[in-house]
Structure formats: C-alpha cells, structure tokens
C-alpha cells in the first residue's frame, strides 16, 4: 500500500504545478479560515454605516465548540481546488500516456488506481489536520474560557469533513478517468454542482425533497450543514446525520468502483 | 515481427503486455498464466518512448525501478550502456528523439529482463540514430537476451533476428527461421559485351526467366542450377561475362512475396 502511495508521490513531488496548486490551496484555506474576525469587523463597520450596531463579541465564530462546524463548513468550499489538482494528475497520465507505460512496466490496473486513491486519502487527511490545527488555535485565542468539555464537543465534524473531501476527490478522479481530457473534465467538475442544482429543485418540487438528499453532490453538501444562521437565532442542524454519512459512503464507494470498471475495461 | 502499417503488430504486443484487452484467445509467458508480475520480468517499449516530461532521465528510471520493484543500483549501468550518463539530470522533455528512444531502451533493460520487446525502436530517427540503436540492439542480443523486434527495416531484421513472423490484418500469415529466406531459386545478375545477351541466355536449359535490366540481365534459375552453370554455358558459347553476381534473396523480397500471396 505504502509502496503504491510513494510511486504516485514520486510523480507529483517533482511536478511544479502540484506545488503551486497545493500551495495555493493550503494557503488560501489557512488564510480564509483564520481571518473570520476581520470579516466580522468589516460586517460591523457596514452595520455602523447604516446607523445600527453589531456587537461582534456576541458572535462566537471561533468559540469552542462552534468553531469546529464553522470552519469545516467554510473549508468545504475550497475542495474544488484540490479536486482540480486530482484531475490534472490523472489526465496527465492519459495525455502523456504514462498510464500505459506504468502498466507495461508491471503495475496492475487496480494497483494504478489504488495509487491515485491513496493520494486522495492523503490530501484529504492533510486538509483535515490543517483545519483542525487552525480551528484549535483560533479557538484557544478567541474562546472566553478554555473548557475541555466544549473542546471535545462536536468533533464528529472532522470525520464528516474528511468524508466530504475524500468523496469529492473520488468524484473528480472518476470524471478524469471517464473523460481523460483535463480541460473538459475541469469544466464538467465546475459545472457539475450547477447542473445538479436545478435537477434537485425539479425533483424536489414535483416529487419529494426526500429523494434529493440521495443525489451525489447534494448528499456531499448535506454532511455539514450551514451553521451561520444560528447567529440570527435560527434553528440549525448542529450535528452530522448518520443517514447523510451512509449516503455519501455509498457514493464514495460507487465513484471509485466506476473508476475501476472503466480502467479495467478500456484499452490503454 | 513484420507486417505493413496497421497489421496489428503493436496491438498484439499491447495484448501481451496487458494494455489491450484481447477479445478472444489466450497466451502465456514463461509457461505461466500471465499476471502483472510477469510483466516485471519483461522489458518493453511499445511505439513511442513514454516518460514523465517534467522528470529527469534519472528520476524517470527511479520511478520505473519502483514500479518494477527492482533495485536502483542498475540505473548507472543502463544509462552507461545507452550513453546517456552525462544527460541523466536533464529533464526528459529536453531530450532529442534519439535520446528518448535510448532512455526507453535503458528503462526496458533496468530489471535485467529475460525478454526485451522493441516496437519500431528506430522510428523517426536520423541515420545516425538508427545506427546507434542498431549497435545497441546487437550489443544486447550478444548478452543472450531474447529480443522481440517489430520493425520495418527488413535488412536489419535479416541481420539481427533468428526467426520472423509476418502479420497481415491481424492474422499470422507466415512464420519461420530467417535462414530459410536464402533458400529457393537463385537469381543471378549477368552482363557481357554482346548485343543479344538476353536472347543467348534464354537458350540456357536451366533458365526460368530472364529480365533485361539497365546494366545487366537478371536471370532467375530453375531449382538445382547455379551461377557457375551459367558461367560455363556462356564460356562454351565463346562469351566472357564481365559481371556475374549471385543475389541472395532478401527478406524484403520474401516479405513482399508473402504479402502478395496472401490475398
């Protein structure tokens, strides 16, 4: 297993695009998630201009345990950058035809796919660790009191976030293997949520919103609900639902299985 | 392995190397059921050299060694053999076509394979590059490796190979040792300072056909007759030939014959 991962990493670690994209991803992720207070100050300034006031100390953006859901939710938006890197990595193998040589040299098709999936796992894990560290540090800074009960509450958002990233990267890998061209795959990846949304709405309006939560991209967004409405005293889903997890796990397995089927059947 | 373009040479090799799924039939390597681990014992370059363009020659070979699960110790040796040692740290994309082909051969040799598959290794090379690859192939063959060569350069094949197979439209239409190419009817070039040479030669009993060429007559003899018989025949007629050359049938000629017979 580790052997297969090192093979894929050896391909990537000397590839400048990989460093640029991953660097931008982790930098932006850190920058955005750590600058929430600045956003609140800007918001407060806006309120002031209109003669009302917003007490930002009353919005516990970075307080334990709110910080866990807040940051994992926001970070979910950036997974597209990582997904594009995954697409570049897999479509390069097709355009350079190196996948063909890898197999001629003695890799099985399943081993080749495994090496890509393992990299996806690693990238997902790194995202989780990074967000955990940022959330933990900002939590320590901004929480009025450090209470271990609060810190240990709601940690399930991290496995959920991990599942969200990994499933989305599996989706990107599958698209790359099915389409094999980087430009087209990236466009489809960018459009996929926008394409799914009206279908969701149609099915929801005409049939049942109960079906919509089974749709692939909708199910991924359902893992971590939007938390911010709670600061306007609205009810939010401040937990990870098992049903959503099960649906996403099934999609995650299916995405990787489709990749496997396609690789197995095609002439490379 | 010979055959016109599109006859299925690369496809056949691709099936043997697991990149093309066979629709029917089966094969074995070393008497075993083929698996991806069997492929590690074979060094193969199909069509074009394939490497990661942004990696150096050295790094590409290190990656190949990882995939083949063999030691990296061999890398300097194979680079030395293909004379790329001084360019090993340059990126693959900066290599010339000849260097790319040579790197591909180096990577195929990395694992000290029992069988080496070279598919048109001289495709697109200049005469110097072709000569380099030819020398390299001979060097490798001299080490006792089995080489499966798909090529269009028929006189190279005739010089290097022991057996040949001809494919056409995906079917095997001929298989045999290269030695047999020379057997069969002898063709002799004859010239002499007489006007009606063709007519005179037609009177020889062992003749099958006489074609007049630019500077000589091309005589195809019946089975059992040789150039010395023609020489004697002419001499008895009082004619002295100033050019007699026995032409061995070339693989090229045989190849074209096999193809045209196979309609």
Question: What structural keywords apply?
Answer:
heterodimer; A: 268 residues; mainly alpha; 13 helices; B: 263 residues; alpha/beta; four-stranded antiparallel sheet; three-stranded parallel sheet; 36% helix; 19% strand
Describe the structure in your own words.
The complex is a heterodimer of chains A (268) and B (263). Chain A is an all-alpha fold and 268 residues long. Chain A has 13 helices and no strands. Chain A has helices at residues 2-13, 16-34, 36-49, 66-75, 79-95, 98-104, 109-142, 148-151, 157-179, 182-206, 209-212, 216-221, 242-265. In chain A, helix 5 runs parallel beside helix 9 and helix 9 (157-179) runs parallel beside helix 13. Chain B is built from 10 helices and 9 strands. In chain B, helix 4 packs across helix 5. The longest helix of chain B is centred in the middle third of the chain and has 16 residues, at 127-142. Chains A and B meet through helix 1 and helix 6 of A and helix 2 and helix 3 of B.
